[in-house]
Amino acid sequence: MINIKRLKSILKNIVFAGVFILLSTFCPLPSLAEVAVTPVINLSLMGGKYYLDGDASSFDGNANLFMSPNIKLSEKSEFVPVYAGYYSGTQDIQELAGGGVLTRERQGHSVSLKFIHSNNFNKIKPRISYSKELVKETNDEDWNNGLFDYNTMSVGIEFEQERPYGTFSESYDFFSVKYPNYSSLISQSATVIDTTTFAQLSSNSGENTMDNTNHAATFAYTWFPEPFIMKAAYSLTYMQYPDQPIVGDATGSSYFKSEKRKDIMNTLRYSLWREAKPLNFVLNSHFAYLSSNQNSYDTARFKYIDDFYTYFQLGVGPSINLSLKNGGSFLLGINWNKTYYNGRYTQDASGNYRDSKIYQTAWISRFSLKYPIMKGISAKTSYSYQVSSSNMRYEADYRYNYRASNLLMGLEWEF
Length: 415
Known about the structure:
Helix content: under 10%
Low-confidence stretches: 185-203
CATH architecture: Beta Barrel
C-alpha cells in the first residue's frame, strides 16, 4: 500500500532540490560585496464599520502587513522573499464553496520565494509559496476551527521575453488547496435518516470533498502604443477534486457516481493604462468561463440539477488615481461583474424551483484618500459600496441580493 504522507514528503524534497539546483545553475554564490538588500515594508492599521442592507456592525479593526527584503545577488540575479498578512475584523460577504457566505472575521498569511535571473532581454522566474486563510462565520467560533479555513501550497515558473514591440510572458503553476475542517458529515448521519437513504448517500461519498489540486498556465503580451500601456492575457486552469464524487439523480442505488469532479477555467483579461502625472487611468476587463462536470441533487425537494457549477462571467472596471503635490493620492474606481449559471435554476423565497436559470450582477464602487502626516506615515481613508442583485430569491444557503458598504480610517507606514 502506498504511504501518502511519505509520498508527499518525497515530492516536497524533489521540488526544493529542483529549486536549489536551478538557483545554483543560474546564480553561483556571490561575494558579500556584490549582495545588496533593499527592504520594503508596508503596514496599515485601520478601523471601520460594515453595513449590510442598512444594518451596521460594531466598529472593528483591519490590518495589512507586507514585507520583502529584496536581495540583489548580481547584475543578473535577484532573490525576492515576501511575507504578506492581513486581518479583517469587519464582516463581509465572500465567495466560498460556490456561493456568497457572510463572514465575521478573516485573516490570511502567505510566504513566497521568487528568484529572478536575467539574460540580456530574457528572464526566468521560479517561485514557491505557502498561504493559510482563516475564516470565522460566527463571533463565538475559534480561530483554526472555521469550516472554510484552507491552506495553499504552490510552485511555479515564469518566462519573460522583452522585445522592441512588446513583452511576452509564459507561466506554469501547480498548487494544492486543502480544507482541514471541511469534511463530509454523511458518516455521522446513520441515526438521523432512514437506512435506505443513508445507504444511497454514503455509497461512493467522499470525505475531504473541497480539497483540490490545480494546474495553471498563463500566456500574456504587453505592448506600449503611446501614450498607453496595454496587456492581454489568457489563463487556463485545470482543477481536480480527488475526493468529491459526481452527484447523480438517485435513479440507481446511490446518489453518487464513482467519477470525480473536474473543473476547467478559461480566463481572458485585457488591461489598459495611461500614466500622465498627476492623473493615472486604468481599465481592467475580463471574460471567464468555468466548465464543471459536477451536478447537484436537492434531497428536500427531489430536484436533480445538472451542470451545477458551470458559469460564465463578464467584468469591467475603470479607475483613476490622482497624485497630490504633497505626496498623497486619491483613488476612485468602479467595477461591474455579471455572472450567468448554466445549470442552476432560480427559486422563489420559499424554495420552489422555477424554469429560469440564475444570473447575478454586482456593482462595486470605491474610493480612497491617502494624506502624508510625517515621513513614511500617512493618514488613510477608504470607502466601498457594493450592490448585488439576482433573479434568485431563495437565500437560506447563500446570499444573492444585498447592499453592503465598508468605511475604514487609519494610518499607513511605508519603509
